[in-house]
Design goal:
This protein is mainly alpha-helical. The chain has two helices and no strands. It has one domain.
Length: 72
């Protein structure tokens, strides 16, 4: 979990996300065949974490819009 070290104080949030990811993975096995359940769970968990913390990560970068290179 080195990837999520900056959020080590948010254990309750990760526990909730892990529980949701587990429920989503188990429900998916009922609808379609899953060949790699741990891999499916990790993918769902990564997606939930990305959606949850996108705002925080986006706000860390204070580069103005003019700083981006946009070819014309």
């Amino acid at each position: 979990m080195l990837k999520y070290e900056i959020y080590k104080d948010d254990k309750h949030i990760f526990e909730g996300l892990a529980y949701r990811a587990l429920m989503i993975a188990v429900m998916a096995t009922k609808k379609k065949p899953i060949r790699n359940l741990p891999g499916y769970f990790k993918g769902v968990l990564d997606k939930l974490v990305d959606e949850t913390y996108f705002k925080d990560i986006f706000m860390m970068f204070d580069v103005p819009v003019e700083g981006f290179y946009c070819p014309k």
